[in-house]
Amino acid sequence: MTSLLDRDRGLLWHPYAALDGPAPYAVRGAAGVRLDLEAADGARFDVIDAMSSWWCAVHGYRHPVLDAAAHAQVDRFSHVMFGGLTHEPAVRLAEDLAARTGLPHVFLADSGSVSVEVALKLAVQVQAARGRPERRRFVALRGGYHGDTTGAMGVCDPVDGMHALFPGLVGTQLFLPRPPAADTVDGVLTPESDPQVDAWIAGAEELVAAHADTVAALVVEPVLQGAGGMHVYPPRCLTALRRIADAHDILLIADEIATGFGRTGAPFAVDHAGVVPDVMCVGKALTGGYLTLAAVLCTSAVAEAVTRSPQRALLHGPTFMGNPLACAVASASLSLLDDGATVARIGRELAAALGPATGLSAVKEVRVLGAVGAVQLSGPVDVGAVTRAALRRGVWVRPFRDLVYTMPPYVSSTADVAAIGAAITGAVEEVHG
After folding, report:
1. Which residues participate in catalysis according to the annotation?
2. Any known ligand binding at 318?
3. Given this model, what pLDDT does residue 171 score?
4. Cα–Cα distance between 193 and 214 in angstroms, integer?
5. What local confidence, expressed as pLDDT, does residue 394 receive?
6. Residue 386 Cα to chain centre, angstroms
7. Which of 49, 291, 408, 416 has the fewest C-beta atoms under 10 angstroms from its C-beta?
8. Cα distance between residue 70 and residue 65, in whole Å
C-alpha cells in the first residue's frame, strides 16, 4: 500500500519547497499544543507545536469552544455570498473587531496576503478620491514581509524578498532602511534613547518628504518584523512614521497579521507606540487557525473618502468574503483572548528558557518579545538537521535563514515553554555547536 508521503511526493507543492524535495512530516493527529507526526522512515513523534502552525493556532488544536462554534454554524449554513446579503456571524465579528481596534469600518478578506492587497487598493482609491490620483506608490521598510501575492510582494523587502524574480509584475516602491534594533527584558520592550533611532527618523523624514507627491501610504509591520527576521524595533520609530504620514497627508497602513491579538505583549503592536493607523490588516490568529480569514479595518475619514468617490465602493469582492463559518469561529477565538497576562507569562518563561542559548558558539543573539522567541545564529541554519534534532527532543520548529524561533500557542503551559526552550537550545547545540 502506497504511503501518504509517497502519494504526496511529486503531486503537491509545499511552501518554498521543490516537488522532489525532502519529504514533509505527515500529521496523524493534533490536540491541545501537540502534534502526532510521522516521518518518511515511519518514525513517530508526539511533539509540542512551537510554531502555532505559522502563528495562527493560538488556542491549540481541537479547542472545545472553537469546535462548538464550528459545529453550530455548520448546522445553520456554512457559506452564502456576501454580495447583497449579510448574516449574524459577519456582523458580530465586525462589531468585535471595531471595538478592539477603535477602527469603525471592516472589510473581510480571504487571507492575510489578500488583506494587504485590499489595503493597498484602498489607499490608492482614497488618494484619488481626494483629488490626488498621482499618489499611487508606497513607502515600506527594508526587512519587511507582507505576503506572497503581487501587490504584497511589492512592499516586501526588495533584496531579500522575491521582487527580482518577477520583473514587470511587481511594482517598484520606496524603502526606508530597516529600523535599529530595540532591547527587551523578559519579553518586554525597554525604554531607549538611541541616537541611531534619531538618525533613522531623520532619514525617514527626508525620504518621504522628497517623494510625498507620489506616495499613497506608508506600510509597516509595527514593532516586530516577522518573516523578515523576527526583528524588534523601537516604538519611537512607529510614532515618527505616524507623524510623518500626517505631515504629508499619507495613510499609515499597519500590517498586524502576525503581531495582532496579543502576540507582542500588547493587544496590537501599534499599541506599544500609542498610535492609531489609518488602515489595519489582521489575520492569522483571527480564527485560531481553524479557517482562513483576515480583515482590513480603517478610520471613518478613510471610509468617507471612498464613499464620496465616483465609485462609492471599495473595489474588491472575493467569492468567500465574510464566510459565515470562518466568522463564527473567529468570534469564538476572540472570546478566548485574555487581558495579556498569558502572553506576559510566556514572554518571561521564553526569556528564561532560551537564555542558555546565548552561551552557544553558533548563536549571535537571543531575543524575546511577548510570546515570540528567536535564536539567531551567526550563519545559515541547517533546517533539516535542526528540525530533526528538535523533534527528537519533543518539539516541532520550522527554522528559516539564520533563525530558530518559536511562537507558542497561548495555551502552552509553563512546562511546555520550558520544553520548547530546551529543545531549541539543544538542537542548535547538537547541529551547530
Report:
1. 16, 145, 255, 284
2. yes
3. 87
4. 32
5. 98
6. 23
7. 291
8. 9
317 is in an annotated binding site: yes
Residue 144 CA to residue 157 CA, distance in Å, equals 5
Q: In a 3-state reduction of DSSP, which class is residue 120?
A: helix
pLDDT surpasses 80 at 387: yes
Q: Where are the domains of the chain?
A: 4-58+339-432, 66-336
Same fold, 4-58+339-432 and 66-336: no
344-372 burial: b if 16+ Cβ within 10 Å, else e:
bbbbbbbbebbebbeebebbeebbbbbbb
At the second CATH level, the architecture of 66-336 is 3-Layer(aba) Sandwich (3.40)
The confidence score (pLDDT) of residue 60 equals: 98
Tell me the one-letter amino acid at 237: C
Residues whose CB is less than 8 angstroms from the CB of residue 14 and which lie 6 or more positions away in sequence, other chains included: 21, 24
pLDDT at 192: 76
pLDDT in tens, 285-302: 999 999 999 999 999 999
Q: Does residue 162 carry a pLDDT above 90? A: no
Measured from the Cβ of residue 64, the count of other Cβ atoms closer than 10 Å reads 8
C-beta atoms surrounding 38 within 10 Å: 16
CATH number among 2.60.120.620, 3.90.1150.10, 3.10.180.10, 3.40.50.20, domain 4-58+339-432: 3.90.1150.10
Is 255 annotated as contributing to ligand binding? Answer: yes
Q: Is 3 annotated as a binding residue?
A: no
Which cell numbers in the block locate residue 1? 500500500
* % of the chain residues with pLDDT over 70: 100
Q: How far apart are CA 417 and CA 373, in angstroms?
A: 10
Residue 191, annotated as binding a ligand? no
- Residue 284, annotated ligand binder? yes
pLDDT tens column, 6-42 = 999 999 999 999 999 999 999 999 999 999 999 999 9
Residues 6+ apart with CB under 8 A from 397: 50, 51, 386, 387, 390, 404, 405, 406, 423, 424, 427
| Annotated binding-site residue? 121 | no
- 359 confidence band (pLDDT: 50, 70, 90): very high
pLDDT at residue 194 in the model? 85
Q: What would the grid cell of residue 167 be? A: 520583473
The span from the CA of 346 to the CA of 409, in Å, is: 9
